[in-house]
Write a structure and sequence with these properties.
It contains 2 helices and 11 strands, in the order E-E-E-E-H-E-E-E-E-E-H-E-E. By secondary structure, the chain is mostly beta strands.
Length: 159
């Protein structure tokens, strides 16, 4: 949709190291109870990169070293009371510190070939495998509450 402008800007981070991906069980906020990557909403004046580094530090107590933006996810909801979200998605492979549980998130490592899509937002299975293959992506998703109704996805090779 050409005119689509989000209400909320947010980020997600997926750290991949030694064939494993660092996921969280989200304890509060949007998607509480689901498995996702760490991340969250922009604070005023932040860039996407500044936001994702701060969120990962707040949620897991680690500092990511080599964040790179891989794609953008756009979420709209049929129920007009839920804000529309644009989410910048990053990957990294190195970090300082040890992932710790915080009030926001419980971290765990998962084999990249055993990602628990059943416990995640329904969009993830459509773009996360492409990202793990090194593809860039942009996607639009429509949700009715927790249920995904439709989507469009473009993927491309990295420059
Ligand atoms: P906080 O409430 O933590 O910011 N998020 C979604 N992630 C996926 N994969 N699918 C969705 O489908 C999502 N909706 C929101 C983006 C919200 C966090 O939740 C993610 C942010 O990291 C609808 O501040």
């Amino acid at each position: 949709p050409a005119q689509w402008t989000p209400d909320i800007l947010a980020t997600l981070m997926f750290v991949v190291q030694d064939g494993k991906i660092l996921l969280i069980r989200k304890k509060r906020g949007i998607g509480a109870g689901k498995v996702n990557g760490p991340g969250g909403k922009f604070e005023p004046g932040e860039t996407a990169l500044q936001c994702v580094l701060r969120e990962v530090r707040e949620e897991l107590c680690i500092d990511v070293a080599d964040a790179r933006e891989m794609g953008v996810l756009n979420f709209s909801f049929t129920c007009g009371t839920i804000p529309e979200i644009r989410c910048h998605v990053f990957m990294a492979s190195s970090f300082k510190g040890t992932p710790l549980e915080t009030p926001e998130a419980e971290p765990f490592w998962c084999p990249v070939d055993g990602i628990p899509y059943d416990l995640m937002w329904q969009d993830d299975r459509f773009w996360l495998p492409a990202m793990l293959d090194g593809k860039r992506f942009e996607a639009f998703f429509t949700f009715e509450g927790d249920r995904m109704l439709e989507f469009s996805l473009k993927t491309g090779d990295c420059p």
